[in-house]
Amino acid sequence: MRKTATTDGPVIIKKYANRRLYNTESSSYITLEHLAAMTREGRDFKVIDAKSEDDITHTVLTQIIMDEEARGGHNMLPVNFLRQLISLYGDSMQTMVPGYLEASMDSFRRNHEQFKTAVEGAFANTPFAEIAKRNMAMFEAAAQAFKPGEGGAAAPLNGSKDDEIAALRAELSKLQDKVEKLGK
User: Fold this and answer.
1) Residues 12, 18: contact at Cβ < 8 Å?
2) 133-151: per-residue pLDDT in tens?
3) Predicted confidence band of residue 36 (pLDDT cuts 50, 70, 90)
C-alpha cells in the first residue's frame, strides 16, 4: 500500500504565470519531478492557477505523464492505446471511460501488490533467502576487511607500501571475481 500524507487535506500547489510551481506546505518552489515523486509516495495535492484560482491538477498530471513518456526508454502508453483513447473523445461512451480506467488501474494495483506479497512469501524460507543472507554476510565481511585500523586488509602489513598495494589489488580482484560469479 502506498504511503499517505499525514495532513488532513491535499497539499496546495500554486502555478504562476512564469510556469513556476509553489508548494504552500513547504513554502518552496518545486518542479514537476517533485510532483511526480509526491504522486509515487501517495501524497495528495491540488494544483491551482495562482491568478485565476482554477484547479489545473488534471493538466499538470497530464504534463507529468507526457514528460515521463518523452524521457525515452520504455513507454507505458502504447500507440494503439493512445489512438483508442483519442477515438473515444466525443463518443457517447466518453463519460464512462474515466471510471472504467480508474477501476482498471485500482484492480491492477491490487493485483500487483498481491503478486509482490506472494513472491516475497514464496522466497522467504527457501534456499534463495539463505543464499541472499550468506551473500550479505560475505559482503559485510569484505567491507570490514577494508576498514583501516580494524584488523582488516587495510591495516598495516609486514612489507613495503608497494607490496601492501599489490596485495590489496589482488584481494580486490578476487572479490570482484566472486561478485561477478554470484551475479551470474
Assistant:
1) no
2) 777 777 777 666 655 554 4
3) very high
Amino acid letter, residue 78: P
End-to-end, the C-alpha distance of the chain in Å comes to 32
Instruction: List residues bridging with 30 in a β-sheet.
Output: 21
**Residue in the block written with cell 483519442:** 86
- CA 59 – CA 75 distance, rounded (Å): 19
Q: How would DSSP label each residue in the chain?
A: -----SSSSPEEEEE-TTS-EEETTTTEEE-HHHHHHHHHTT--EEEEETTT--B-HHHHHHHHHHHHHHT-S--SS-HHHHHHHHHHTTSTTTTTHHHHHHHHHHHHHHHHHHHHHHHHHHHHTSHHHHHHHHHHHHHHHHHHHTSTTTTSTTS--SS-HHHHHHHHHHHHHHHHHHHHHHH-
